[in-house]
Amino acid sequence: MASLLFSAKIGRCISPSNAMVSDQYDSKREGLSFGKGIFARKRDPRDSVFTKVATQAPTVIPSLEKELAGDRNHVAWTSVQQERWEGEVVVEGEIPLWLNGTYLRNGPGLWHIGSYNFRHLFDGYATLVRLHFENGRLIAGHRQIESEAYKAAKYNNKLCYREFSEVPKLDNFLAYIGELANLFSGASLTDNANTGVVKLGDGRVVCLTETQKGSIIVDPNTLETLGKFEYSDSLGGLIHSAHPIVTDTEFLTLLPDLLKPGYLVVRMEPGSNERKVIGRVDCRGGPAPGWVHSFPVTEHYVIVPEMPLRYSAQNLLKAEPTPLYKFEWHPDSKGFMHVMCKASGNIVASVEVPLYVTFHFINAYEEKDEDGRVTAIIADCCEHNADTTILERLRLQNLRAFMGDDVLPDARVGRFIIPLDGSPYGKLEAALDPEEHGKGMDMCSFNPAYLGKKYRYAYACGAQRPCNFPNTLTKIDLFTKKAKNWYEEGAVPSEPFFVARPGATEEDDGVLISVISEKNGDGYALLLDGSTFEEIARAKFPYGLPYGLHGCWVPKK
To answer: Per UniProt, where does Fe cation bind (predicted)?
Structure first.
């Protein structure tokens, strides 16, 4: 486990050896089922007794009382009310009986420590949400991930590690020198694993963020933090892609090289903690690698994006956030897409493409001619029209200050076309008219059986204007170039996660799971039919949960 190296005498934090979490809320209530069955038979009323469901406002931990008393912000941007809760919830509608397993959603959920409020959505300490489906019933819960950053902040009642936009406040110049030393070694970088959660091929569940040290193993049943995921190789480095490609047979990720700008493409086998290098891509422009929050793959290739929004060591050293935080926009450095063969590590294409800004790639596949030869790579992403202002719009002050103005920057399904014939240029175009999804586009998923293959459907968060954040769920049909949208006034939905029906033969035969935060402070789990995109069930939580980012599915054994 990471430790803090400087004592309080020079303004640093002391890391606790053990930080306990409290479970202050354990009330009970009876509930009834509602609505007409769509996928499953109606339950017998004798089966409709639910435990641990709130009957009154829950007790909050003391550090939150001051904030909650005067807070009128949307619950999506409000710190979670307590560190942990679990209970069976009332289901309105019917959960498909085939849906047996656990949906886990990770994301920032605590945006302050003591009286200090964080600046940015991405700063928050990780809150892991669990939705366990079994025999048409739903047990929900949440728990804080006990990273060293979170435990040290609780113990010292102040920020102790560098978060996305936050830097610990230091008492004197000596402390600043120590902070710089820790930064270069990586000791002061956060391990706050608040971005994603993946199930490895060997069954281990790992929460992740941009820093390599922020890889934390959790128990998917209890949400208990089990410890760090320690890489056993000697590849080193401080950061990696927050979104590895994970299947039952492999784990692929990118390691940006900040000293000699480029990327290592690495693979890890199930049951192993050792990453092995497939190959390296050298950057073609700019003073540093482009930000690689995510990347796509096809059946035979890894696609490495080189975005002109690039890492900035200079910004990382500053004590206060710059407009683009840890990054700099270098349009003169151009944008590129590189294609590497998974088997050999050889680069088979490296093309210049129009400038772009994306956090999340959706999927990619190989385009073939009539003889079966691969002629191009198609890679889709949530693209922000090469506009970096989306990062500033995600400041908590901006998210909380919505007054009805339409301030969400436009976005689209950006489709890269990367030729494999040696051409120096690729294309970037909209895969469909952005008006179909309100010119909002992020937080995407698709049927994982189509990873790296030609696919038809993608699911994401779109926009119902005016808005300051994606506020719809949208189903994109990439063949007909049309979209279906779900919208509820004042609701902020999180990523729609697709779970396929066992034995399904149609690509969209399954359900979408999303956690919804409501403007009145409430919240619920939502299930949509993957084909019709109509609601089939919802289950209200005892209180609304903050907005979250990415999830994974752990099927019942």
So the answer is: 243, 293, 360, 550
What's the CA gap between 473 and 495, in Å, rounded?
Answer: 8
Nearest to 380 by CA among 358, 367, 366, 361: 361
C-alpha dihedral (170, 173, 179, 185), degrees to nearest 10: 180
Reported as type and span, the H/E element at residue 390 is helix 389-393
Question: Which among 118, 151, 120, 182 is positioned nearest to 316, based on CA atoms?
Answer: 182
Q: Tell whether 338 is in a known binding site.
A: no
Give the model confidence (pLDDT) of 290-341 as tens digits.
Answer: 999 999 999 999 999 999 999 998 887 776 788 899 999 999 999 999 999 9
Q: Which of 31, 19, 71 is nearest to 546 (CA)?
A: 71
103 vs 553: CA distance, rounded Å: 5
Nearest residue to 3 (alpha-carbon basis) of 127, 147, 167: 147
Tell me the pLDDT tens digit for each residue of 47-100: 322 333 333 333 333 333 333 333 479 999 999 999 999 999 999 999 999 999
CB distance 89 to 29 below 8 Å: no
Q: What length is written for the chain?
A: 557
Distance of CA 309 to the CA centre of its chain: 19
Q: Are residues 443 and 428 in contact, defined by beta-carbon separation less than 8 angstroms?
A: no
3-state secondary structure of 27: coil
384 is in an annotated binding site: no
The C-alpha atoms of residue 231 and residue 414 are separated, in whole angstroms, by 34
Q: What is the dihedral of CA 150, 51, 494, 304, to 10 degrees?
A: 60
Angstrom distance (rounded) from CA 434 to CA 414: 10
Contact 481, 429 (CB under 8 A): no
* pTM for this prediction: 0.88
Distance CA 200, CA 194 (A): 18
* Spatial distance between the Cα atoms of 434 and 413, rounded to a whole number of angstroms: 7
Question: Of the candidates 353, 229, 339, 230, which has an alpha carbon nearest to the alpha carbon of residue 295?
Answer: 339
